[in-house]
Amino acid sequence: MKIKKVMVIGAGQMGSGIAQVHAMAGIDVVLHDVSEEAVERGFKTILRNLSRQVEKERITTVDKAIIVNRIERSVDLQKAKDVDMVIEAAVENIEVKSSLFAKLDTIAPASAVLATNTSSLPITEIAAATTRPEQVIGMHFMNPVPVMKLVEIIRGLATSDEVYETVEALARKLSKTPVEVNDFPGFVTNRILMPMINEAIFTVYEGVATPEAVDEVMKLGMNHPMGPLTLADFIGLDTCLYIMETLHKGFGDDKYRPCPLLRKYVKAGWLGKKTGRGFYQY
Ligand code: CAA
Ligand code: NAD
């Protein structure tokens, strides 16, 4: 299957990055969100990133204009009617994703691939909201999308080989490295990463160390590019909490219990970098 036009649902930090890398690879993109304000915010992030590429002389101003021209902005889901593929990157909530997939199923062409960038939710369950589970797949990009090489690809129970191969080829076209994993809560990335972040939050909660000290230990002691609490702020504390809840519910094991401090911050609206406050202030 040839992917020439993609709709990206959700223009947040992941959706804007996903739209950018597709446009840079020569693919037409519809960048969609629930409000014009959200779409504009995502679009401005792309413009900023592309301007930096121009400054670094990796692309010319003409290239930038061509890339930007490939991106159409939308608050109308009906724009899915003439795309080859949808990549959903809305909030990490099964009801929101299932409802979106049920709607997309009635709008997108029968041949279209419906992919989700979910960090942890079951692909099989999202696929069950549609009448075409064989065309539903997990395409999990890493943050920041323009920089990170990995795309985790997750088949649902019914995903066809053709759809898998299409998404794998697309990931390579975006200069990413695809890795196939099975449909279990958190897949591989967040099964391993998020309990570490949650444990880092427990060390602060229990008074073992300050956030600065925890991050310094992990950066200098383990050579991580960012400490776990800086990374949590960067990912979004809401997303971290939703992922821990999926692991906790999915495996039924108390070792995945979200730290109460994480819940408290999310309740306070301290969602990390995107709201200006999390474990640190921005
Ligand atoms: N968007 C686009 N580009 C960005 C960026 C962003 N948000 N942040 C940094 N960059 C680019 C910079 O422009 C720079 O590019 P150039 O070399 O071309 O100028 C490059 O990345 C390196 O940036 P910096 O020199 O400013 O900073 P750095 O060396 O500390 O790298 C980083 C920044 C790549 C983000 C690095 O800190 C890092 O790798 N952090 C960990 C990221 C990580 O673990 N991501 C996975 C999160 S988990 C996930 O995504 C899955 C999930 O489901 C939650
Ligand atoms: P974000 O909060 O930055 O952006 C989410 C966007 O989705 C917002 O702009 C919001 O308005 C929009 N949205 C919410 N409901 C919508 C709907 N019904 N229709 C259209 N748009 C809707 O979140 P994010 O960090 O970009 O995460 C998005 C998805 O990507 C989540 O599923 C998350 O788990 C996953 N993910 C996140 C990361 C990360 O590091 N943040 C990494 C990989 C995957």
UniProtKB/TrEMBL annotation:
Query: This protein's superkingdom?
Result: Bacteria
Q: Which residues form the 3-hydroxyacyl-CoA dehydrogenase C-terminal domain?
A: 186-282
Return the InterPro entries for the record.
3-OHacyl-CoA_DH, 3-OHacyl-CoA_DH_CS, 3-OHacyl-CoA_DH_NAD-bd, 3HC_DH_C, 6-PGluconate_DH-like_C_sf, 6PGD_dom2, NAD(P)-bd_dom_sf
Residues forming the 3-hydroxyacyl-CoA dehydrogenase NAD binding domain are 5-183
Keyword Transport assigned: no
The residue stretches assigned to a coiled coil in this entry are none
Pathway of action: Lipid metabolism; butanoate metabolism
Listed A to Z, the keywords are: Oxidoreductase
Entry's family note: Belongs to the 3-hydroxyacyl-CoA dehydrogenase family.
Q: Return the protein name.
A: 3-hydroxybutyryl-CoA dehydrogenase
Can you name the source organism? Halalkalibacter kiskunsagensis
